[in-house]
Amino acid sequence: MRKFFLIALITLFVLPLTNALNAGDDFCGLKNTAFNTGEYLNYKVYYTLGVYVAAGEANFNVSLEKFNNRPVYHVVGDGSTYSFYDNFFKVRDRYESYVDTATLQPLKFIRNINEGGYKKYENVTFNKTANTAVTNNGVFKVPACIQDVISAIYYARNIDFNKYKPEDKIPFSMFLDNEVYNLYVRYLGKEKIKTKYGTFNAIKFKPLLIKGTIFEGGEKMNVWVSDDGNHIPLRVESPISVGSVKVDMMGYRNLRYPLTSMISLK
Question: Do 14 and 149 touch, CB atoms closer than 8 A?
């Protein structure tokens, strides 16, 4: 069950594949039309072995800052288990990405995690001139169009999904743990989804998962994002190695557009 709730959110768009397509230049250079500075999203994570139990929460915040004299979106994702669940597996995770406002490409990525006593700190700086990623462990060559696990979510929210038809694959590249992964998600179309927060018109995806993580291999995860200009993640559902996990959006502030996809509150 290790770090399942932040992983579930982060893998909305960014699961590495064994036979993925290469992400080409057609998927670089998107402009931000989906989120605002000051946006806040809250998620509740449920774990089940038959009955769903609320195990923790994750929050995502966006602020406007400067990095090396360039304006950036500073996106922070924090995740933690509830106090009662800490007795089984305590999680305190923090992910940060500094994303160029002009290109939506990451300039810096920080991962600081504490998961059941396992601690890891990762600091990555992306050199866009040399196309390299400088980490705690060295310098690694990366494609010109590269994402980290946080920037990829916000980048993908800006994709014009109306250009695609059901079963189309949307590829891009991500750098994590000193490796470059070629990724894609499969677009499945639009449908209504009822969550713990309410009922929405949604866009649906089915990422292909690698067997061997806490998630089972194959296309078993389902993801829904709001079918409006915000494209905020609404729900993630997936079986995991033991039981299953469900993540629901439970709160938001400062969205760029009205949440017109919402049909009704719970």
Answer: yes
